Amino acid sequence: PNPGLSWRWWVVGIGWWVRAAAMVACATCTSTSTRRGQPMNGAEQDDAPLPHFIVTGFGPFRGVANNPTTTIVKELPSYLFSEGKCSVGLRSCAPKELASNVTTHIFETSAEDVRRWQDEWFDKLSHEVERIHSPTSSGGDETSADAAVTLCGNKRNVVLLHLGVHYKAKCFHLESTAYNDASFRVPDERGYQPRDECVLSTDGGCARRGDKLSTTLEVAPLVKRMEARGYPSKLSGDPGRFVCNYTYCYSLDKCSQFNATAPTSFDSIGANKTDKPTLYSIFVHVPLFQISEKEEQLEFVVGLMDEISIQLGEKRYSS
């Protein structure tokens, strides 16, 4: 027998088994994608519930009559629920499961509307957390629960994903930072045009104009993951000083306050003391549809929610 020939057949055989193993692994990934993905750090990802996403956009404003974020936010739920529409490969869950963990809201492009909605939402959330987890509570009436009540009852991570348009952008800007600085270059939709004012109250000296607030999500890895998915993205530390920055700054501050002050004594329902809603906020500037078409932007938002879900799941298992 030819020793060289035997050696070549041995290599071919090993290659065949490697390819077969890869095909089995791929099939396993595909079959588990509808139930929450694969184990992480030795634990089943099924044990980590998906975060709930509050996805917000804006209506028109001066210079942008048709705001792409209005369309994205309005169409996002149906895009996820429709069979065959969502072509994004998700690693954390199936599209319909993600859809059931998304609520949406469109802001008027005005500081007043942003403050009003956030004040109402955060106040209600805080109230429901206290009510559900008070010593005399039986957990609340699920039949009358709205989004805020449901979030408290499920004790999951909550991510406020704010979308705004950057009319000069050539790619997606993931914002890591907001500033306590309201200096609008043009009036908002209610005619408000602050100059060198604070977004947050300075009562008691707890905030100064220009103070920087940063998201607790790890933005740089998210940018890398979205680039790897094929969506041109960049890490940004400057959301401007218009209503986008105003929204992000106010949201980050509200999340920080809630995370610091939400009750931790859940003994009445036998839950672990760390098992409470944790709030996160992130802002993304999207380009105009002339730069990135609607379908691509919907895919981007779904992919980003998937990556955020994975990141928070990894945090949970590493903590």
Report what the structure shows.
This protein has 319 residues and is α/β, with parallel strands linked by helices. 42% of the residues lie in helices and 13% in strands. It is built from eight helices and eight strands, in the order αβααβααββββαβαβα. It has helices at residues 3-32, 68-81, 95-99, 111-132, 147-154, 219-228, 243-261, 294-318; strands at 52-58, 102-107, 158-165, 172-175, 177-179, 212-214, 233-236, 279-286. The strands form two sheets. The chain has a six-stranded mixed beta sheet, sandwiched between helices.
In brief:
With 319 residues, the protein is of the alpha/beta class. It has helices at residues 3-32, 68-81, 95-99, 111-132, 147-154, 219-228, 243-261, 294-318, and strands spanning 52-58, 102-107, 158-165, 172-175, 177-179, 212-214, 233-236, 279-286.
